[in-house]
């Protein structure tokens, strides 16, 4: 069983990197992770084996984690939001410089 944190992380990564996946991978991901269908339900809908769906989902996970490892878009987004929260609380303008440096 997948942990809730892993599902949330995969959904965030999917939102960022879905355009790098095939149409079939996007479809399988949406059914499984967003619509909460079981492998059997997806298999029945798409007329493919459960094993094929499972394999594709594992490839999608690997791709999403690989993209993030190389590009760090989600990591920078989370850091940006953290700094913005700190700025909101403190009003410290030095934090704006930290935001600018994230994209250098």
Describe it:
- This protein has about 100 residues and is mostly helical.
- It has two domains: about 1-70, Arc Repressor Mutant, subunit A; about 70-104, no CATH class.
- The chain is about 80% helix and about 0% strand.
- The protein is built from six helices and no strands.
- α2 (about 25-35) crosses α4.
- It is elongated, with a radius of gyration of 18 Å.
- The termini are far apart.
- The model has no long low-confidence stretch (mean pLDDT about 90).
Largest sheet: none
The structural domain count equals: 2
CATH class of the largest domain: Mainly Alpha
Query: By CATH's scheme, which homologous superfamily of the largest domain applies?
Result: Winged helix-like DNA-binding domain superfamily/Winged helix DNA-binding domain
Oligomer class: single chain
CATH topology (level 3) name of the largest domain? Arc Repressor Mutant, subunit A
Silhouette: elongated
The Rg value, from CA coordinates, equals: 18 Å
- Spell the H/E element sequence: HHHHHH
Mean pLDDT, to the nearest integer, reads 91
Going by helix content, strand content and strand pairing, the class is mainly alpha
Reconstruct the topology from this structure.
Elements (H helix, E strand, L loop, with lengths): L3 H14 L5 H12 L4 H8 L3 H22 L1 H18 L3 H9 L2
Helix pairs in contact: 1-4, 2-4, 3-4, 5-6
């Amino acid at each position: 069983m997948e942990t809730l944190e892993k599902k949330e992380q995969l959904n965030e990564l999917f939102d960022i990197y879905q355009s790098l996946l095939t149409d079939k991978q996007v479809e399988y991901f949406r059914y499984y992770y967003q619509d909460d269908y079981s492998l059997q339900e997806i298999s029945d809908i798409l007329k493919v084996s459960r094993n094929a769906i499972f394999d594709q989902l594992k490839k999608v996970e690997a791709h999403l984690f690989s993209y993030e490892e190389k590009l760090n878009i989600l990591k920078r987004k989370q850091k940006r939001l953290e700094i913005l929260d700190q700025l909101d609380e403190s009003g410290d303008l030095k934090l704006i410089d930290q935001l600018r440096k994230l994209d250098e």
